[in-house]
Each structure stands twice: as C-alpha cells, then as structure tokens.
Amino acid sequence: MRSRVWCGTAATVLGLLAAGCGGGKGVEDKGTGKAAAGGHPVTVTDCTGAATTFAAAPERIVTSNASGLELLLRLGAGDKVVGTGFPPGKGTLPGALDARAQQVEVLSRTVVPKEKLLGSGADLYLDTFASMGGMGGGMGDAPTEEEFKAAGITHMYLKSTACAAMGRGPSTDLSAVEADITSLGAVTGTRAKARELVAGMRKQVDAVRKAVGGTPEDARPTYFFFDYDAGTGQPTAVCNRQVANAVITLAGARNVFADCDGDFKQVSWEDVVSRNPDWIQLGVRNRGSEAANEKAFDEARRWLEGNAATKGLKAVKDGRFLRIGSERTTIPGVENAAVVRQIAGTIHPGRVK
C-alpha cells in the first residue's frame, strides 16, 4: 500500500527509510546475502516521496523488463521471479545469470498485457516504464493503482528509469541505480548482497573519477552512442536522462546529445555530422554468442564507413570505435560501472587502465 511516511526524518537519497521506522536490520546470511530472519517491515519511497511498506519479503515477483530481472538475479532473489516482460536475449547476461534468466516465464516479449499481469498471482510488480506523480501514464494499457491493489499486487518502480521520466534533470552518475539495488536488497531480504554490489560499482567508478574526473569539459572527447539495432535510416540518440549519459559522463567523455532533454530521441544524420564526434560506440544488442556479436559490430562499423553522410566523421576516419553492447550501457544495472571503466580505459588510455 502507498502512503506518506514521516518518521522524524526524510527519506534518504537511496529511497530507503529505516525498517519499520525504527532502524531494525534483521539477521543476514553473509554467504548468500539472504535474510536469515527479520529485516521487515521495510519501507521504500518512489520519486514523489510516496512510501510503500513491505511487511514481509515478496514471494512472487513479475518484472516489466530485463533491467529489474537482472538486478533481482544478481541479488540472489531470482527464485522469487515468476514472470517477466521484455526478456533478456540469450547470452545477454553472464554465465549462470543467463541460464537462470532463460528459465523465467516470459509473460510477453514486450509490455506485459494488463489482464495477464493482474492474473499472474504476483505479490510484487517491479515496473521500469511507468511515469509517476501525474507525469502521464505508463507504457501500454497499464493497470491502475486500484486494480493492482484489488489483485494483491504491490507496485514498485525502479528509480533509475521511472525518476528519469519525471524531469529530475540530467543523469550524470549511478546513484539511481545504486538506489534501486539498495531498495531491492532491503525489500527482498538480500541487504548484504546489495551492499556488496554497490561497493563493487563504486570501487570501479571511483577509480575512474580519480583518474579523469577533473578533466575540464572542453578537454573531454565527444562521444556518440550509435544504436545500430534501432535502425540506420534515422539514428536514435541517447539523451541526458538516459543512464548511458551518466556512463559516458563518468568515463570522462561528452555525450554529443547531452543537450537533448529526455531518454531517447530520433535525430537526423545531419545532427550527428554537425556534432562530429571524436569517438563512436557501436552499440549493438547481444546476439547470443561472441562470434555473432563480433559480426554485428563489424556490420555497424562497415555501415558507418560506407554511408555517405557518416564516412567523413572524425571518429570514422580515425577508426575510433568502441565495441560495447547496448544492454550494458543503456539498461540500468551493475554492468554500467564496468562500462564506465571500459570506455575510460579506451578514450583515456594513459590515465585509466
């Protein structure tokens, strides 16, 4: 249920209020990250400050897409996921995570239909798409909050995506992703694992920040994320509220479309040419194998080199391409930090290993 909760202090930046408003921690199994006992009730907040209290950890979770699914899998709560929309492609996630992801029931290849979601038996729906706080409806024919309540489903948003739709300003760091991990860790009783994941992300990003964070804006190379799979007729740019903008910024580069206010936007090749990026990321989606991925990267590069509008770009003429998959860059998650380091190590080779 959703209510305003004021326990003497405001919600923290991570969106997690003290458990039961009294700071209860529960006992955790350090090996698995799962709560051995206690830890609830837990109260989390959304982008508007509205609070949701979980009296116990959810047992049946439906995720709207691969972003929420991956976070739950990494937290060790994947056994609670009973269905997902927009499933990750085979090979998108590493090792055992991929195998586990492929076992989750696919309720829809796109947005989960309203009737299927309400009849799924879920007690938690982890939503990536819907806007909040009067900013408009979500993707597709989304259930109302009254319908969620009638079906016994708690509706929780991922801050790293939902908050971006609320006009909270450009995404320049990974704090919203960390907030999601921390909140989900508390909700699912996997706080220890959440702390471990956040610490690992911060270690990577802090190392890059120390090396290149002080680079003046005009000394940072310009960077274009080429979303090859979104179509080449009219390019799709990642704008300043997309997590990719934070990844690019933290890596010590300048997103050439950082002045675009939103997450994604179709632009023109004339727009790209006028910004003439120093580096281009060949953002192709995972094909399921390393060989297939390399083939797709090659195709994206050849297209840029052969297209009349793009072959004269500085990055294309100098062969300054980065082969980094779309999902790791544009889907909020643990891998974002690794991509920060990968980009920084490529465009600042003398400063970042």
Mind explaining what this structure looks like?
The chain has 353 residues and is of the alpha/beta class. The protein has two domains: 2-198, 3-Layer(aba) Sandwich (Rossmann fold), CATH 3.40.50; 215-347, Rossmann fold. Helix content is 35%, strand content 16%. It contains 13 helices and 17 strands. The protein has helices spanning 66-75, 95-101, 114-118, 145-150, 159-162, 175-188, 191-212, 243-250, 269-275, 290-306, 314-318, 326-330, 335-347, and strands at residues 2-3, 16-17, 27-28, 35-37, 42-45, 51-54, 61-63, 81-85, 106-108, 124-127, 154-157, 222-226, 236-238, 254-255, 264-266, 279-282, 321-322. The strands form five sheets. The protein has a five-stranded parallel β-sheet with strand order 9-8-7-10-11. It has a four-stranded antiparallel β-sheet with strand order 1-6-5-2. A four-stranded parallel β-sheet has the order 14-12-16-17. Helix 6 (175-188) runs antiparallel to helix 7, helix 7 packs parallel to helix 13 (335-347) and helix 8 crosses helix 13 (335-347). The longest helix is centred in the middle third of the chain and has 22 residues, at 191-212. The radius of gyration is 21 Å and the shape is globular. It starts with a strand and ends in a 6-residue tail after the last helix.
Q: Identify the overall geometry.
A: globular
Strand order of the largest sheet: 9-8-7-10-11
Classify the helix fraction into a percent range.
25-40%
Task: Report the β-strand fraction as a percent range.
Answer: 15-25%
Count of beta strands = 17
- How many alpha or pi helices? 13
